[in-house]
């Protein structure tokens, strides 16, 4: 049958002409669609009220994309698979800086100076598998579960204070680009930079990640951050925008690429060992929790949107205010039962804490808990490591691996619904004054207005110490050298917008010279990378390294002959 009749012939999976391959108007073989066959006309922005949010539940494309992404690995986490953890406690100061903390939040975990709340913390790398080296260049997860008197609160963050993207609809694409190539099964910087060079808001994160900040020396001596913007709500229902920051009392230490490679040759679990041994000998690591806070609102006086997770709130305008400290003082009794099965979710908040319209936060709030139900099971919250350390009584029943029924001692076991006059569960009687933000606007799929993608990246480049800048440039050069020339040129263009010297240094390292008009050309005699459409046998290297192919050859050359047995 001819193509004009809408049948396209054999597909790559071997299906014959009987498979319907019709196209809608403006659609061809390369058109991105949902699994339902709907053409995707905007894959950059989720649907929100106004361009700042909040997102809406009928975001079918967003939810389908995230729900499938959450189920890509069984049972290993899709991201944050490599991790270690410890028990401890959080002790509140009862103040935010010099003010009573109750002025800003009614969350009980922060009230009453000296009060301690049990916690479990899981540190992790993001991209690589469960047994990957802890020296890899990668963001580190920093997730804290607070077992508070009001129920669990999960503060799920990273070591770096920002992220690559500002809209959760791009998260599966981001992670796919950082994961191993589906054909060669190895991480390839060409895939990474192919995505990054078309995502300008990533420049700030890339500047951190490819510098020594991309390889913390260990977990004890790294910072943590909630990354997203949240809200605090006080007893009057007034809300404040907040950022969470964990500052290590042990100091901060990072590694260069060459230092990390030397450590990796000796120990791929050095950070896990470091944390375990420190706690075993009583050298308990501590972090101070500091807050940045501003009035709720859009803040048009700023040159960035305070909900944009690719931005840092300037500390001179929004100082770090200490609110408490965390101490880790007990190792898990069993790694699988605790560290591997612990399940976090950004939607797990207690009264006095609330969500902002941060588009990444709203997507994560669906995705994280959805992942846990898939990975661990529908009753994951009945596991001891995940269960609240307080009264639990629900009408949720059954499902895979139901360990017990979460019913009250005097509850009528026949009644698993509410309301009921026959001895069922009742609603709580207290009524805290709710925070009721006004939401108004057209449903849109648009970027936020104040993107300002390059300013903070350039500022960060200039703030780095000389040795950090040197390592950053070398790591970017090593990662970009195997890439197609179009990708190299696009990255140089973006880095130059951050800082002229930044772009020039990377360009020179790759082999480009700058023209009088500010454009770049490949130096004569330099290797020209292939054009698009050619899929080379040799790909790029893992982040920061340019010696992956050398290692393959070296293994064969240095390998010692042996006789069969």
TrEMBL record:
Name of a matching Pfam family: Catalase-rel
Domain Catalase core: 33-426
Cofactor entry: heme
Disordered, as annotated region: 1-53, 535-565
Binding site residues for heme: 368
Entries under Gene3D superfamilies matching the protein: Catalase core domain
GO CC annotations on file: cytoplasm
Cross-referenced SUPFAM superfamilies: Heme-dependent catalase-like
EC numbers: 1.11.1.6
Catalytic activity field: 2 H2O2 = O2 + 2 H2O
UniProt-listed InterPro entries: Catalase (IPR018028), Catalase_AS (IPR024708), Catalase_clade1/3 (IPR024711), Catalase_core (IPR011614), Catalase_haem_BS (IPR002226), Catalase_immune_responsive (IPR010582), Catalase_sf (IPR020835)
Record-level GO BP terms: hydrogen peroxide catabolic process; response to hydrogen peroxide
Membrane recorded as keyword: no
Keyword Cell membrane found: no
Protein name: Catalase
């Amino acid at each position: 049958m001819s193509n004009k009749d809408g049948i396209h012939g054999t597909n790559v999976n071997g299906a014959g002409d009987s498979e319907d391959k019709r196209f809608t108007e403006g659609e061809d073989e390369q058109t991105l669609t949902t699994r339902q066959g709907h053409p995707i006309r905007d894959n950059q922005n989720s649907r929100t009220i106004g361009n700042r949010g909040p997102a809406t539940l009928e975001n079918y494309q967003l939810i389908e994309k995230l729900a499938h992404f959450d189920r890509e690995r069984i049972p290993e986490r899709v991201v944050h698979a490599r991790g270690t953890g410890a028990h401890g406690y959080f002790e509140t100061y009862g103040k935010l800086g010099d003010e009573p903390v109750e002025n800003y939040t009614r969350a009980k975990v922060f009230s009453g100076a000296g009060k301690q709340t049990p916690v479990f913390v899981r540190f992790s790398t993001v991209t690589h598998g469960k047994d990957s080296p802890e020296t890899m260049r990668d963001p580190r997860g920093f997730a804290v579960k607070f077992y508070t008197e009001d129920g669990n609160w999960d503060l799920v963050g990273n070591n770096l204070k920002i992220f690559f993207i500002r809209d959760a609809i791009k998260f599966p694409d981001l992670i796919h680009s950082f994961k191993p190539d589906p054909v060669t099964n190895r991480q390839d910087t060409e895939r990474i930079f192919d995505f990054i060079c078309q995502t300008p808001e990533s420049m700030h994160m890339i500047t951190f990640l490819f510098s020594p900040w991309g390889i913390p020396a260990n977990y004890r001596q790294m910072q943590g951050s909630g990354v997203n913007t949240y809200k605090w709500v006080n007893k009057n229902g007034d809300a404040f925008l907040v950022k969470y920051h964990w500052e290590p009392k042990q100091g901060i230490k990072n590694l260069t690429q060459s230092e990390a490679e030397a450590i990796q040759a000796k120990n791929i679990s050095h950070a896990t060992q470091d944390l375990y041994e420190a706690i075993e000998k009583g050298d308990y690591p501590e972090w101070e929790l500091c807050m940045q806070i501003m009035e709720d609102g859009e803040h048009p006086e700023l040159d960035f949107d305070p909900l944009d997770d690719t931005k840092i709130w300037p500390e001179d305008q929004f100082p770090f205010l200490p609110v408490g400290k965390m101490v880790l003082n007990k190792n898990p009794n069993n790694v699988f039962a605790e560290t591997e099965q612990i399940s976090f979710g950004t939607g797990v908040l207690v009264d006095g804490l609330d969500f902002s319209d941060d588009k990444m936060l709203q997507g994560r709030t669906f995705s994280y808990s959805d992942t846990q139900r898939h990975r661990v099971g529908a009753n994951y919250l009945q596991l001891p490591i995940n269960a609240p350390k307080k009264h639990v009584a629900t009408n949720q029943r059954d499902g895979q691996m139901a360990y017990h029924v979460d019913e009250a001692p005097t509850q009528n076991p026949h009644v698993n619904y509410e309301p009921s006059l026959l001895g069922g569960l009742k609603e709580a009687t207290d009524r805290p004054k709710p925070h009721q933000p006004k939401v108004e606007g057209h449903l849109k799929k648009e970027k936020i207005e104040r993107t300002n993608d390059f300013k903070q990246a350039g500022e960060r480049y200039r703030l780095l110490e000389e040795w950090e800048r040197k390592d950053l440039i070398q790591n970017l050069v090593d990662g970009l050298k195997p890439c197609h020339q179009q990708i190299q040129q696009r990255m140089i263009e973006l880095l130059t917008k951050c800082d002229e010297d930044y772009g020039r240094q990377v360009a020179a390292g790759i082999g480009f010279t700058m023209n009088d008009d500010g454009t770049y050309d490949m130096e004569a005699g330099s290797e020209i990378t292939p054009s698009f459409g050619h899929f080379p046998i040799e790909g790029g290297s893992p982040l920061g390294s340019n010696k992956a192919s050398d290692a393959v050859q070296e293994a064969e050359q240095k390998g010692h002959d042996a006789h069969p047995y």
